Amino acid sequence: MINYRLMAAAFFFYGIFSGLAGQDIHQAAKAGDLEEVARLIGKDPSLLNLKSSGGSSPLHFAATHEDPAVAEYLLSMGAPVNEYNASGYTPLHYAAVYNREAVASVLILHGGDPETCSLEGQTSLHMAAISGASEVTSILLDNHAACDSRDDYGRTPLLLAARESGDVLTAEILLQYGADIDAVDKNGSGALELSAWRGYKTFTE
To answer: Which residue from 5, 30, 87, 164 could staple onto 11, CB 3.0 to 4.6 Å apart?
Structure first.
């Protein structure tokens, strides 16, 4: 059986951690160090789009930090908001999985598209559901993210919330926005079955 959670995590974190060592701009962006990011880009503007070996830009790294200041600065300097890394993730995917509410709002305000898909067909809403990021789930749905979009395994965000995070609040938010409670994946498994299989008792109560 494919360990879906580990496979997804491997693809996701490869893009943000590979090649980090030695790339000062990436370290500063990930740390939320606006002064250092501005200093480095002021000295060498090409750093704005410098890629890690995983294909991540400084904006990808900034999206993992809770303070949106670095992301706002990079966007003001012209950083592409919907750029993919080698694993097919955009900065908004990272803001979603880290539940960075303020950063997600900034990215969307600058044109971040909730419907862009990773190599596994996952939108930012899928990633928010996987990590139980309820705040970002609400933001994405408020900005017209499709609540029943399916990834390459036929899983909707609700199915992923049931299978991966078991987060009841995220599931409730998805249902409030019209998620199909009867949806099943390619294996014919529904939300209650998947959550029970994972042992998420509070999800099935």
So the answer is: 87
DSSP class per residue in the chain: ---HHHHHHHHHHHHHHTT-TT-HHHHHHHHT-HHHHHHHHHH-GGGGG---TT---HHHHHTTSS-THHHHHHHHTT--TT---TTS--HHHHHHHTT-HHHHHHHHHTT--TT---TTS--HHHHHHHHT-HHHHHHHHHTT--TT---TTS--HHHHIIIII--HHHHHHHHHTT--TT-B-TTS-BHHHHHHHHT-HHHH-
- Joined together, the tokens standing for residue 54 give 């995983």
Per-residue model confidence as pLDDT tens digits over 24-70? 999 999 999 999 999 999 999 999 999 998 999 999 999 999 999 99
155-184 per-position pLDDT tens digit: 999 999 999 999 999 999 999 999 999 999
